[in-house]
Amino acid sequence: MADNGHDGAPGALGAVYAAKRPEEVAALYDSWSQTYDADMSAAGYRHPTICLALLARHLPRGASPLLDAGAGTGLIGEWLSITGYPLVEALDISQGMLAQAARKGVYSALHCLALGGPLPFVDGAYAGIVSAGVFTSGHVGVEGLDELIRICRPGGVIVLTVKNTLWDAGFAERIAELEAQGVVTRAEETAPYVSMPGEADTVPSRGLVLRVS
Ligand SMILES: C[S@@+](CC[C@H](N)C(=O)[O-])C[C@H]1O[C@@H](n2cnc3c(N)ncnc32)[C@H](O)[C@@H]1O
After folding, report:
1. Helical (H) or strand (E) element with 186
2. Residue-by-residue DSSP string for 191-203
3. Given the CA of residue 48, which atom of ligand 1 is nearest to it?
4. How far apart, in whole angstroms, are the C-alpha atoms of residue 63 and residue 129?
């Protein structure tokens, strides 16, 4: 788990940021799942849009299969199929969120699993991985990165968002280390932006594109 710091987000998201255990996170998202899309829309939630733009810039149309890691209700999955990525699998710790994602009918497989530990996929299983709004307070920390790198095929990309709180608490150093080791190349890094303009005091995040060597 990442840090547990609140960053001013009220309601359901504030509670999730403060969660201390993965089971707690899953339960909170389970109970939020039915109103998540409407709540995030009202907050002007930007991570899926930013991630989609980054993915489309760095991964050719038709690349397959992709993994939406921390897919939630499938906000980005809907757009991936429209923009030319035909086979996308969803992974999330919350069965309730995955049930909402399933209703959209855009994922070829749904995996109820936790990021942050070993994942049951072979090395290089995915041509690309997207993880929007997951590397954030109370969710997944830098410990979740190595497995995503392992299951992404060489030449593939991982598009993720990282909240500043995590970035400043070890994420930046870890990325620099992985680059120095030749494990990944930082293909793109956005300036920090506010992911939910409709929520006061949202701590900024950045979008990151890592190309796996
Ligand atoms: C803010 S939501 C983002 C969902 C989706 N990517 C989006 O942008 O709408 C965070 C998601 O991460 C999931 N999550 C939190 N911790 C997780 C973990 N350890 N492993 C897998 N998923 C996790 C939550 O269940 C939730 O669906």
Report:
1. strand 184-189
2. PPB-S-TTSTTPP
3. 8
4. 11
- Count how many Cα atoms sit within 13 Å of the Cα of residue 77 in the half-sphere of its side chain: 30
- CB distance 131 to 70 below 8 Å: yes
Task: Supply the range of the domain harboring residue 134.
Answer: 11-212
SS3 content of the chain, % helix, strand, coil (to 5): 40, 25, 35
Quick: pLDDT tens for 118-141.
999 999 999 999 999 999 988 999
Please report, for the domain that includes residue 165, its CATH number.
Answer: 3.40.50.150
Nearest residue (CA) to ligand 1, atom 27: 72
Q: Is the CB of 77 under 6 A from ligand 1?
A: no
**Residue 5 forms part of a structural domain:** no
Average pLDDT, the chain: 93
> pTM of the predicted model, to two decimals?
0.94
Q: Do 137 and 164 form a contact (C-beta atoms < 8 A)?
A: no
CA 119 vs. chain centroid, Å, equals: 15
Q: Cα of 184 to ligand 1 centre, how many Å?
A: 23
Split into its structural domains, the chain has a count of 1
- What does the angle CA 163 – CA 169 – CA 173 come to, to the nearest 5 degrees? 100
Binding site membership of 92 for ligand 1 (Cβ less than 6 Å) = yes
